[in-house]
Amino acid sequence: MKVLIVFALCLVALSAGERRFVRQAPFGQPQPQAFQQQQQQRASRQNQPQQPLPEERAAREYSQQPQQNQLLRQETTTWIPILKYNKEQGNDGSYKTQYETGNNIVAEETGYLKDFNENTPNGVLVQHGSYSYTAPDGQVVNVEYTADEGGFRATGEHIPTPPPIPEEIQKGLEQIYEGIRLNQEREAKEAKENPAEYAKKQEERARLNYNGQYYPN
Description:
By secondary structure, this protein is of the alpha+beta class. It is 46% helix and 23% strand.
């Protein structure tokens, strides 16, 4: 029991000695070295500049660009009014629509369905329309277009046109198209006069095409 009491007193004495070691000395006396090191570390941490948070850094960069931010606000707050909008929808799928905006855009379009058959049970949509707008240089641009099973085709004075085909190339193309037409007529005649033989040739042609081989006419 006495041994435990002596051991506890030793621990208390050691801890008290450590506290006295870092305790500030009375005024006018030299400070202990450990206390001086603690004071220097505390002062060093206080003098170091704190790094701003990402939100603070973004806000600071935003505030440093007032002119650019003002320009962005002006561009994003511009709105264009719709001056006119009409649409008519028919029970047969046809329609007609028109609209006009405050920045001089005028457009109209009509559409209808055609060619209802087994291949196109829902029909083929045909669209005709036009639109106009003012270009940055002040010129009014007019466009007319048609969209159907042949694709989208637009016309307008501002659309570039391809240069004319040279005469020699045009003659070569005409000969190619003529050869294709003659082959189609010959195959149609053969299919009508000898359908069994024509079907056999078509099967052989499909096999050669699948293997990447050429079938002579």
